[in-house]
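ARCHIVE CARD
CATEGORY: sequence design from structure
SOURCE FIELD: tokenized fold
FIELD CONTENT:
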């Protein structure tokens, strides 16, 4: 076993020193983190869990919102159902809704909760149906296509989340919402995270996905946009030149920042400790969006 050198130890101490002012700034604040299904199962997963636990221990109120689209599609295929998407939304009949609920609430949510709780009594899993956290209205497709049990977030009641964070716990939210007549509705996790961040008055909203951030040119990974204002994001959305998977993230960011959240971030969740690198270092990683341009 090779012992660390003095230089190695000093580098670690310097990293902690760099993080200190950012820790002081975020301690006592709320951060909503949406962990995408595409990032799960990658090398960054264990590091993500560690990052969430560290944030909780330094006094940050963390709410984890998760997707699970790839696993839903896999289960649908096993049951002989072909996944169909319209403008990025999964067409969801009654059987598909049952499968989605099974995956998101019964499997992905419990996996995340279990992994976080290897560090102690920290995480509690819930869905948007619990305590009417998320209430959805049926999504109306502009083309008149029947999307089934697909909804848009109509209302958020963060009472249950606040009760958990006040006790030092980490809520882990599966985005199945309560719809008309008490039926479950499938809502986009990116959009739900933006609505939750706004309702909670969060300091930050973070999306962990499978790309480095938002690119000026989709074909050029070197065109990463490191910093934007919410007005610039709205202009990008209006231009219609964004990849389909990025649209709900940018829409969620607009919802959050127009609702009072100060900053939002899009990061590569496959990168180990991307969350800490963005929140607790001077340079950060990925794309940051702020409410307005800072002087």
């Amino acid at each position: 076993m090779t012992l660390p050198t003095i230089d190695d130890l000093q580098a670690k101490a310097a990293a902690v020193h760099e993080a200190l002012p950012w820790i002081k700034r975020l301690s006592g604040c709320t951060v909503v983190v949406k962990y995408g299904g595409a990032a799960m199962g990658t090398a960054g997963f264990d590091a993500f869990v560690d990052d969430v636990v560290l944030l909780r221990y330094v006094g940050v109120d963390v709410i984890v919102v998760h997707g699970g689209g790839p696993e839903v599609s896999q289960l649908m295929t096993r049951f002989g159902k072909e996944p169909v998407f319209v403008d990025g939304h999964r067409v969801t009949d009654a059987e598909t809704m049952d499968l989605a609920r099974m995956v998101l609430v019964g499997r992905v949510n419990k996996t995340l909760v279990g992994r976080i709780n290897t560090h102690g009594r920290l995480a509690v899993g819930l869905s948007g149906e619990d305590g009417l956290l998320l209430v959805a209205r049926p999504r109306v497709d502009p083309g008149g296509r029947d999307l089934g049990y697909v909804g848009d977030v109509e209302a958020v009641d963060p009472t249950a989340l606040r009760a958990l964070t006040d006790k030092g716990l980490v809520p882990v939210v599966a985005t199945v919402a309560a719809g008309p007549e008490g039926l479950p509705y499938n809502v986009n996790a990116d959009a739900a995270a933006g609505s939750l961040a706004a309702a909670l008055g969060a300091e930050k909203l973070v999306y962990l996905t499978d790309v480095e951030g938002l690119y000026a040119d989709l074909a050029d990974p070197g065109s990463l946009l490191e910093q934007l204002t919410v007005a610039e994001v709205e202009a990008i959305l209006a231009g219609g030149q964004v990849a389909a998977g990025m649209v709900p993230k940018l829409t969620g960011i607009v919802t959050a920042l127009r609702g009072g959240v100060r900053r939002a971030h899009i990061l590569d969740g496959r990168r180990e400790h991307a969350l800490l690198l963005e929140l607790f270092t001077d340079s950060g990683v990925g794309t940051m969006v702020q409410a307005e341009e800072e002087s």
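CARD ANNOTATION: The mean pLDDT is 90. The longest helix spans residues 94-116.
SHELF: design records, drawer C
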